[in-house]
Design a protein that fits this description.
Elements: H1 13-20, H2 27-33, H3 37-42, H4 51-72, H5 78-89, H6 91-100, H7 111-115, H8 122-140, H9 142-166, H10 169-180, E1 186-193, E2 200-207, E3 210-217, H11 220-234
Antiparallel strand pairs: 1-2, 2-3
Helix pairs in contact: 2-8, 4-5, 4-8, 4-9, 5-9, 6-8, 8-9, 10-11
Length: 242
């Protein structure tokens, strides 16, 4: 049987806070951060789910991660900082942070959501983690959030930096374009010169109504990658020596 205080399948807010070593006495606030709407819908005595706290936590994380990166990576340019911040606050990464602290077992889920594997669902883990951040901020402000989050950021940032260095330039450009709200890029073959066994293609990439980069290659795919890399360089997202 479940009650509004928690689930027999899960962990109480008090136990979670004790396990994480956080000095918080407002367990009601933490309980709200852990409460999915499916749980609130099944319990008349639960007045609010965690969606408002999720909204707040999202904003707090954006600021805190940006400030942390600014302080810890003075050698990185604006484009690199933006890429790294995006990697640290994306849904999958926040869900991974939630897994690191075993947040899933403390989530307050409705019976159907619980039976359906909600404790391992990426979107729910991410949303609950953001809600927990919002609760910590309301409880004790940014210092408590920093104490809680920053130890997780260090290894995650290093992994993301390595991944970004190895990322295909077309994929990287696509991610940046989507983040800016632009339409999908268009790759257009401009020329194809030389004999069939040694043809050189020139491709340009267009988005936001302008040609953003050009590249050469022995195949259209290679030329498109070169064009994407030039666009990334022109935009300041990567350096010429990347």
């Amino acid at each position: 049987m479940e009650t509004a205080q928690g689930s027999l399948r899960g962990e109480s807010p008090q136990d979670l806070i004790q396990r994480l070593g956080l000095s918080i006495t407002d367990f009601g606030l933490i309980a709200r951060a852990l409460t999915h709407r499916s749980f609130a819908n099944e319990h008349n005595d639960v007045l609010e789910d965690n969606e408002r706290l999720e909204f707040l936590g999202d904003a707090v994380l954006d600021f805190l991660v940006g400030a942390w990166l600014y302080d810890h990576y003075p050698e990185l340019k604006e484009g690199d900082l933006t890429r790294l911040r995006s990697g640290l606050v994306r849904t999958e990464q926040l869900a991974e942070f939630a897994r690191e602290i075993n947040l899933g077992r403390a989530m307050r889920l409705g019976r159907g959501e619980d039976d359906g594997g909600g404790r391992e669902r990426i979107a729910l883990l991410c949303g609950t983690f953001e809600a927990l951040i919002g609760a910590l901020y309301l409880s004790d402000g940014l210092p408590l959030v920093q104490q809680f989050v920053e130890p997780m950021l260090i290894p995650a940032a290093e992994r993301i930096l390595v991944s970004l260095e190895e990322q295909d330039p077309k994929s990287l450009l696509q991610e940046w374009i989507q983040a800016q709200g632009y339409d999908h890029p268009t790759y257009r073959t401009v020329t194809a010169n030389g004999p069939d066994h040694a043809k050189i293609f020139e491709v340009e990439v267009i988005f936001n109504g302008e040609i953003q980069g050009r590249g050469l290659g022995h195949s259209k795919q290679a030329a498109a990658k070169s064009a994407a890399r030039e666009a990334l360089t022109n935009l300041g997202i990567i350096r010429n020596d990347d």
